[in-house]
Design brief:
about 55% strand; 9 strands; 8-stranded antiparallel barrel; single chain; mainly beta
């Protein structure tokens, strides 16, 4: 039986109501040049985060692919790809796409992570299975990507 272990929490900059519209239209990537991540398994800074999104009215979701270049506190460079969906209560995602304010409790992100790393201290990242869960704070739209390591779930 596998278990989920908290790996890290990533804190990125604010997503404004117009930013959601821009992301959903897929016109151009949303680029962030700063952020941080911390947790029991990894900590450091986000050097670059690029997000490409696409809104699906049928699925009431925003599909996205986010790539990040990370630098750990001990100097390792790690590249991460997160593919997933922002989902929400009825009408929440449509409201975001329209540029309306939506209560943070009305939508969330779920994704699957892949890592690329050359540093031998972190090669275990390439062999794991990972989920991400994103939420925003009620005070301001600040993304938190919580990454879970699914340890042993596919082992015999």
């Amino acid at each position: 039986m596998g278990r989920l272990e908290l790996m890290t929490v990533m804190d990125l900059s604010i997503i404004t109501p117009s930013g959601w519209t821009h992301l959903a239209n897929g016109a151009a990537p949303v680029v962030r040049a700063r952020g941080s991540f911390s947790g029991p398994l990894l900590s450091g800074v986000v050097l670059k985060n690029v997000v490409i999104g696409r809104y699906s009215a049928n699925k009431e979701s925003i599909e996205l692919v986010a790539t990040a270049e990370l630098l750990t506190n001990d100097g390792a460079r790690i590249y991460k790809t997160d593919h997933g969906f922002w989902r929400g209560t009825d009408g929440a995602i449509q409201a975001l796409v329209n540029g309306d304010s939506v209560a943070a409790s009305q939508f969330y992100f779920i994704g699957v992570l892949k890592y690329a790393v050359n540093d031998p201290r972190y090669t275990w990242l390439k062999e794991g299975n990972y989920l991400s869960h994103g939420t925003t704070t009620a005070i301001r739209l600040r993304s938190h990507n919580i990454e879970y390591w699914i340890r042993g779930i596919w082992q015999n």
